[in-house]
Specification:
This protein is mostly beta strands. It has a single domain, classed as OB fold (Dihydrolipoamide Acetyltransferase, E2P). The chain is 0% helix and 54% strand. The strands form two sheets. The protein has a four-stranded antiparallel β-sheet, with no helix packed on it. It has a four-stranded antiparallel β-sheet with strand order 5-4-2-7, with no helix packed on it. The protein is globular, with a radius of gyration of 11 Å.
């Protein structure tokens, strides 16, 4: 089952902390998002393997944009 990790708010990607194929655990920090001049860590909602990453550093994202897929 795939889990889509969506942006909780509009902002700018500061850093993607994992790569495609990496195994992650629930609550692992996977993306650092800057919004409202604050750094907001984005955590994996569930454990699994990173299947796709749809953002990179300096990308702007909108609320609910799919940033990553975990299987």
């Amino acid at each position: 089952m795939s889990i889509e990790l969506r942006a909780p708010m509009p902002g700018k990607i500061l850093q993607v902390l994992v790569n495609v194929g990496d195994k992650v655990n629930e609550d692992d920090e996977v993306i650092m998002l800057e919004a409202m001049k604050m750094e907001n860590p984005i955590y994996a909602p569930a454990g699994g393997t990173v299947k796709e990453i749809n953002v990179k550093a300096n990308d702007s994202v909108e609320t609910e944009q799919i940033m990553m897929v975990i299987e």
